Amino acid sequence: MVKAMFDTKWITENAAEFDAGQARRGAPPQAEKIIALDDKRRALVQKLQDAQSRRNSASKDIGKAMASGDKELAESIKTEVSDLKTFIQSATDEQRQLDEALKELLSAIPNIPLAETPDGAGEDDNVETRQHGDRPDLGFSPKQHFDLGEDLGMMDFETAASMSGARFVILTDKLARLERAIGQFMLDLQTEKNGYTEVSPPLLVRDQAVYGTGQLPKFSEDLFATTDGRWLIPTAEVPMTNMARESIIEEDKLPRRLTALTPCFRSEAGSAGRDTRGIIRQHQFWKVEMVSLTTPETSRAELDRMTGCAEEVLKQLGLHYRVMALCTGDIGFGSQLTYDIEVWLPGQEAFREISSCSVCGDFQARRMNARYRPTEGKGTRFIHTLNGSGLAVGRTLVAVMENYQNEDGSITVPEVLKPYMGGINRIEA
Fold first, then answer.
1. Catalytic one among 180, 281, 322, 373?
2. Active site includes 353?
């Protein structure tokens, strides 16, 4: 059985639809190649089963021939069994190679977008669905977060670079506390109001975990690997989604909603020259991640709910933002439909992504063999998985700093964060 993101039987019956879905992503047609390889594998499997069945019956025939005294027949059957044994061994090796080839082919193919995902080649073709709040007028020329942080003496890039290289930062004093306050506030909101169960997952995972969520094998360069064959998680989506790996969940236990506040680690491969100043794009950062496991019938509605849970963080912080439906050329490898939330940064005079919420259908579940048992009917079905940021802590810190800055360079603490700041109302040098 080949574990991959797609059902080869469905591809065989819906080849044109499969290729059309890939074409919307700008990917080449693959159905014909997949079907041919799967047909070859299935034919070999049938021959192998027939040979194994004949070998079993022939072994009995040898006994019968010997019992009847027909040594010539017995020797003939022994020769046949020997030939069958040789064939079975070589066919088993060939099947293993075909299984691996099919798995490798399927593993490199992205998910099929939903019909409502906008068509497009890249981020310029993403579609704005709504905005919340008004663009703030600070009444003075706002600074970017890195200038604010360095002027406060609480954001040190130089020392971080000397010990770790580029794309690291050291936060100190009240800015470090503000970062912690933001993460705790978001985690409390998602658990206490939005019904997510808090998880404290491993930060190191094995190959099968990152394969299960789709980062391997195609995106290994985006990850950090350890010397003992583990991977630092790029997001808590990986360990939380894999909590359903190789399991069967009763339908009445769904949806299962999980959240975690963890460090995340990304190599930022291909990001050379982008956001080199500041903490927008770091190798190490904190993030509150949300994961939902649902039935196929409820997954689309769950995406709207999850996006709303992420938006609630920005609403409570009083930040201006917009929601974008990503086009087919910009959605992630495993996504069917993605909403990005972009917050307004006065210092940059631009919207920047602060959350991405995606529904993946059964794309990840097939790789993890994650299933549920329906309340009615027989058998099991693959669950649907969703993931989203609720939110990226570092980028939320940037948004708070730039939107709540004062002309003298101080930063006013948002009302909802004050309980987490020990009575600090303003961050000053």
1. 281
2. yes
The model scores a pTM over 0.85: yes
Question: Is 366 one of the catalytic residues?
Answer: no
Query: Percent of the chain scored above 70 by pLDDT?
Result: 99
Q: Which distant-in-sequence residues (6+ apart) come within 8 Å of 304 by Cβ?
A: none
Active site residue 281: yes
Where in 124-253 does DSSP place strands (E)?
Answer: 127-132, 155-156, 170-171, 197-198, 204-205, 224-225, 231-232, 248-250
Of 24, 167, 257, 266, which one is the catalytic site residue? Answer: 266
Active site residue 24: no
Tokens 């594998």, residue?
Answer: 41
| CA 269 and chain centroid, separation | 17
Residue 377 pLDDT: 86
Q: Which of 356, 367, 371, 402 is catalytic?
A: 356
Residue 65 · residue 41 · CB < 8 Å: no
What's the N-to-C CA distance of the chain in angstroms?
62
pLDDT of 291 over the 70 cut: yes
* Beta-ladder partners of 325: 127, 339
Band (pLDDT 50/70/90 cuts) for residue 4 is: low
Which of 41, 366, 371, 395 does the annotation list as catalytic?
395
Domain 123-427, CATH: 3.30.930.10
- Region 161-178: mean pLDDT is 97
What angle, 0 to 180 degrees and rounded to 10, lies between the N-to-C axes of helices 393-403 and 173-188?
120
The predicted-structure confidence for 54-80, as pLDDT tens digits, reads as follows 998 988 888 888 888 888 888 898 999
Catalytic residue chosen out of the listed positions 353, 373, 381, 410 = 353
| CA–CA dist 264, 394 (Å, integer) | 11
Is 141 one of the annotated active-site residues of the chain?
Answer: no
Mean pLDDT of the chain: 95
Q: Note the pLDDT tens digit of each residue in 223-240.
A: 999 999 999 999 999 999
Instruction: List the chain domain ranges.
Output: 8-107, 123-427
Domain 8-107 has CATH 3.40.50.1260: no
